[in-house]
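User: Okay, second chain of the day. Same drill as before: sequence in, structure tokens out.
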Amino acid sequence: MSGAKVENGMKKGLIAALILSALVLVVYGQCGSFELVTYDDTSYVTNNPRVMQGISTENISWAFSSFQLSNYHPLTVVSHMLDTTLFGDSAGARHLVNVFFHLCNVLLFFFFLLKATAEFDEDGLVPSFFAAALFAVHPVHVESVAWVAERKDVLSTFFWLCAMHSWLGWARSRNMASYGLTFFFTGLGILAKPMVVTLPAALVLLDIWPLSRIDFSKSPLTGLVKLIAEKLPLFGLSVLSSVLTVMAQQGGGAMQSVESFPLGLRLSNALVSYVAYLGELVAPVNLAVFYPYPHEIPFWKPLLAAVFLIGVTAVAVRFIKKFPLGAVGWFWYLGTLVPVIGLVQVGDQSMADRYAYIPFMGVYMLIAFGAARLVRERQMPGKAVVAVGSVVVAVLLAGAYAQAGYWKDSKSLYVRALSVTENNHHMHYNYGNLLEREKNLTEAAKHFKAAFKADPSHYKAMSSLASILSRKGDLYTALDLYQRALHINPDYAPALGNRGIVYMQQGKFDAALTDLRKASALEPHEPNHMINMGLLYYMRGDNAHAKEWLQKALQIDPGNRIARKNLTLIP
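Assistant: Same drill. Structure tokens below.
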């Protein structure tokens, strides 16, 4: 290729990169003014003392030596600490860091495809651009970018894509430094989010297309075995990460039991979800932050889904020699979803938009380069394909911009989710908490009631409704709800503490003492339990113990006005 052609190609690539950057900023520039939402952002950031202290040797050591929120993703936790060090408590800055990583991911994806396809597609710029553009603006990816708690998505994908670039260097030059970089980036990706465990398998797929490292005319199975064997160190990282993830999720209680989620229901939901994600790919409407798990699934749904999945898989395998891209794109989608498809159920969502962040890349490659092949073979007019592609990107951009707007604050996010889903217990509960903090107790009570109507085991919603009713003077109904909540979870400290208050109001001091003692033991750093213990002892006439408990509360929270005021009133 002449120097003039190379220079011209570089200019076109840079222009395409600038356009992609503009697309990302048009959609996500608004995130700089967004708040943190009360769904997980508080757990990951504002309510995490280590994160809010910022970067330090001690905090970094803690991140790497402990599990957080039923996960092991220390690098993500450290990135949140770094946000604090650099930006303080700025919510907008944390959002823009996510946007920055998404922008980097879009450009890394674009330049990888451009470099990897250069040897067989002289005009690979256009399909590379459109594949990256779909990744940049598809509304399904809004959750991964606009949700600060999903920093792990954009950060882990950054390292995933860096590993793809270094693997390209290994495949082309057999340079051990490139292999070492791939190992390094794979490890960093896993430390950011365990979903990266599928990266070694994805690299095998890239060896098939676009790297063409398998000759299908000469014992392809042998070639495939060799490609897998050279990645054994990478697979070793995946195995280690899988062990740590299981330990974290079991220890944190996030991994659901077979009794709660039977294997048959899990398999049915997994099959249906594989097709549902493709539905969101084609028509990304009615997206929500949480999709409730179905109590039952009609038999015909997983059956049709299985027929569809098997049919597409059979076609992909049948034509892998003539059209390897088809098999690579399809198996990329199927394979990278495996850790989160729900066969091992973590949490109680049926599916989640964030899970499609990496899997959809395979489909984008298939769509863009499949269309480019049809144009080369003169089965479709090139200008028409570019025009249609441009319209699709424009429509997706508009949809992503609107979808991102729902993430501006908690209220907007929850109201939107409730408007497009049914029986959404998580969103009813979270919105109820928000309304309760706004002192709108009547509406909050409605949402708490809707939460445990949708999920009869939602003991937190029962306890929250009971708290509102007790404040309104309906002690008997409140007490009944506390009993129901504690029957489901006998160690739920807020319900124990609040039931103790109801017993105090009813003059049942012994029962109140039992509940408050247990609540305080379960939450030893919660000053409210100590304040209530002090009040209880005061009501019993035991001023010495009342002062002792109030002083304990002040040791935990020296600025607690209620504890200090009550202490001054006791003679």
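The mean pLDDT is 94.

User: Thanks, on to the next one.
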